[in-house]
Specification:
There is one protein chain. It is built from 17 helices and 11 strands. It is α/β, with parallel strands linked by helices. It has a single domain, classed as Metal-dependent hydrolases (TIM Barrel), CATH 3.20.20.140. The strands form 3 sheets. Strands 4-5-8-9-10-11 form a 6-stranded parallel beta sheet. A 3-stranded parallel beta sheet has the order 1-2-3. The longest helix has 19 residues. The mean pLDDT is 96. Keywords: Hydrolase, Lyase. One of its GO terms (molecular function) is carboxy-lyase activity.
């Protein structure tokens, strides 16, 4: 695996076309107001400035490729900025959003198809449209889809999503779980807790729904990548195992201890702590962790390979996470 390319599975593209499409539509103002309450004014001010400064990296393939060269990254798996989910949209608008997002992401990646691979979007708020959206993404040459930790009124354990999981299994599509927003709302509206605490919480909740509900039992071939190292779940999985064995309500939905399902999932390496990364590798397995940077946002890392090297993994595990695992995963498409 030491000869495998270096593959970053967590990188984003900004799609002005999508934002132009939804501008002024009913529901957008309410969604923005909710986002403002959840994040707080200080976080919004900093985030707005940060994104504006990084528009070239987010939109221009040439700038992206130059940054990849500087990082020593050969291939990026590019997903739309989660701000493009727009789960407030009605059915007609939602279809326009995912089609435009899929097509625009594919066009961005077409600038360097040997180095940029893409993911599309699905409208989780309309489960009946998710299979069609996944098929559309695959038709554009994308490798799968990105989705959040929940939609309004629906968790990922909702039976309405069973056709999506089935279709993703059938096609070998990748599913990238990347939360946007946290339902703890104003409790996290200072000090950027909405992200530093909220994102790991949302990852852990969403993965727990998939595990405890039996979704992963029913769909063992699902190829799901969890952003941010899966949040709090992998490092606190012992508590889940204890509940599964000690309580009838916790153990009723899935066939095996929750920790066993970590080895069926994939996780990016973006945990910001070498000790946590080592624990992630221990609990999930070195073959289930993939390099991730969150390019080019400020909550990512500008040196993903260096961050991985700092964890002190064995040489074989280092190269597996650096690119060997992802290269094999991407080749299956």
């Amino acid at each position: 695996m030491s000869t495998a390319p270096t593959v970053d599975v967590h990188a984003h593209v900004l799609l002005p076309e999508v934002e132009a499409l939804v501008a002024g539509l009913p529901g957008l103002a309410e969604a923005k107001a909710l986002d403002a309450r959840r994040n707080g004014p200080a976080a919004l001010a900093v985030s707005g400035s940060m994104v504006r400064e990084r528009v070239p990296e987010l939109t221009d393939p040439a700038v992206r490729l130059a940054a990849m060269d500087a990082q020593g990254v050969d291939v990026q798996l590019v997903s739309p900025s989660p701000s493009h989910y727009h789960y407030w949209a009605d059915e007609e608008t939602a279809e326009q959003v995912y089609r435009l997002a899929n097509e625009a992401t594919a066009a961005h990646c077409s600038a360097a198809p040997d180095r940029l691979r893409g993911l599309g979007l699905v409208p989780l708020q309309h489960p009946g449209h998710t299979v069609r959206a996944l098929d559309h993404a695959l038709d554009q040459g994308l490798l799968g889809v990105e989705l959040s930790s929940h939609a309004p009124g629906r968790e990922l354990s909702d039976p309405a999503y069973a056709p999506l999981w089935t279709r993703a299994e059938e096609t070998g599509a990748l599913v990238f779980l990347h939360p946007f927003g946290c339902t703890l709302d104003e409790r996290l509206d200072r000090w950027y807790l909405s992200n530093t605490v909220g994102q790991p919480v949302e990852n852990a909740v969403a993965l727990s729904h998939l595990i405890f509900s039996g979704v992963l039992d029913r769909h063992p071939g699902l190829r799901l990548i969890a952003a941010h190292g899966g949040g709090y779940l992998p490092t606190h999985i012992g508590r889940s195992d204890h509940a599964w064995s000690a309580r009838s309500d916790a153990g009723a939905g899935c066939a095996h201890p929750p920790s066993s399902y970590l080895k069926r999932l994939y996780f990016d390496s973006l945990v910001h702590d070498p000790h946590v990364l080592r624990e992630l590798v221990r609990t999930a397995g070195a073959d289930r962790v993939l390099l991730g940077s969150d390019f080019p946002f400020d909550m990512g890392t500008e040196d993903p390979v260096g961050a991985l090297r700092a964890s002190g993994l064995a040489d074989a595990d280092f190269h597996a996470v650096r690119g060997g695992n992802a290269a094999a995963l991407l080749r299956k498409n």
